[in-house]
Amino acid sequence: MRALVYIGMILLLFSVLACKRDKPDPDPIDPSTPSGCNTFDYSNTTPYQLDIPPFIPPMNIPTDNPLTQEGVELGRFLFWDKSLSSDGSISCGSCHLPEFGFSDPNTFSTGVGGAMGTRTSMALVNLGWANFFFWDGRAATLEEQVFHPILDPVEMNESVQNVVLKVQSNPMYPPMFEAAFGTQCVDSARIARSVAQFMRTLVSFSSDFDKAYYGTSVTFTPEQWNGLELFLKEGGDPADGLGGQWGADCFHCHGGSFTFFTDHELHNNGLDSIFVDPGAYAVTGNPMHLGHFKTPTLRNIAKTGPYMHDGRFATLEDVVEHYNSGGVPSATIDPFMKYTQGGLQLSDYDKFCLIEFLNMLTDEEFMENPAFQDPH
Ligand code: HEC
Ligand code: HEC
Fold first, then answer.
1. What is the widest separation between alpha-carbon atoms in the chain?
2. Is the whole-model pTM more than 0.85?
3. Ligand 1 pocket: which residues have CB below 6 Å?
4. Which domains does the chain have, with CATH numbers?
5. pLDDT in tens, 195-220
6. Alpha-carbon distance 200 to 59, whole Å?
């Protein structure tokens, strides 16, 4: 009985915390249904051809929001437009900088009026293949995601009505809306759809790793190759009977197929035993999701620090040290974090190799692509 009361109190505490973190609900904008403008007419648009290499499966583009050159261009202007924030000081690009893999080198990004959140900015890369968005997975589509930062008081702190008004009264935009959606009308759903289109074009598959693994223009150094093998091998001592190979055991969650470097799932990777940030639990209410966060992609990882949802690790050395230690046990820790006792026992040379491998995932062509930069 006592235990039940205790568990009840913990759950209550977490729900209070969860409520505190709650963002105001986006106004009734459902990007899948026509809102103020009532139409989405793509018939006079030009299809946008994504440059996706043959080793990558096709992107899941929603049938009701196809990629068009006009929509992507509009989305790019809006992504970089500071007037989408309440005081005109911040655009999406302020916290998602191209030279840092579309993330922010600060632990917590600065929002309007110096406000600060409690989570670190995420890299915007290959989002068109993801199933949900944010560290806790609370947005199901990119279209739905767009208004979260706009409405968030510690980010852009603006209302749907004001954003629509400001975009509408900027003479540059109505013709762009006409080109992308058939009429000059501006509404939240059209804004969300065009920004989502732009974000789907942020694809990164031209790193040295891709050139070495899928092509011949770059060759692996012995250290990089050793790092790749460690990434793919099970951790731990073979003598323990768990299939150990003295590897680093990264592939279970960051993908063994060497494509996205994420399994697009939520896991608890052993950072904490008490969860200051409840993670996906705040979204699902399922106690098994306490401390579960989205597996980030490792593409451009050398550029997207600081690392983890709260930016607790400054360097890749710190990250590798965390995994090498095995992490801390908790009721919801992932079954693949098997070595909370004893750790992975990687040698200094192995740790070095693993980082050499991760450094290969930097894609300069992606970050410098002129099509993604601020057009204003
Ligand atoms: C003040 C900084 C800030 C601004 C401005 C901002 N973001 Fe973010 N972005 C973040 C943070 C922090 C997160 C992680 C938030 C979380 O998980 O709770 C994030 C997460 C995201 C994600 C999720 C990525 C993933 O892999 O799941 C997307 C997509 C995104 N932002 C797009 C945008 C767009 C579009 C805009 C402009 C409309 C924008 N952001 C404006 C800081 C910012
Ligand atoms: C059990 C699944 C799992 C395993 C195994 C795993 N990771 Fe992770 N990784 C995650 C999750 C989940 C996060 C985000 C956790 C958070 O922020 O709370 C993460 C975060 C990271 C980050 C930070 C990314 C960022 O953008 O902040 C790096 C780097 C990383 N992992 C590398 C590795 C390496 C290298 C290995 C192997 C030694 C590994 N991971 C093994 C699930 C895993």
1. 70
2. yes
3. 79, 84, 90, 92, 94-96, 109, 111, 117, 119, 121-122, 124, 127, 130, 133-136, 145-146, 149-150, 155-156, 195, 199, 294
4. 26-203 (1.10.760.10), 208-364 (1.10.760.10)
5. 999 999 999 999 999 999 999 999 99
6. 9
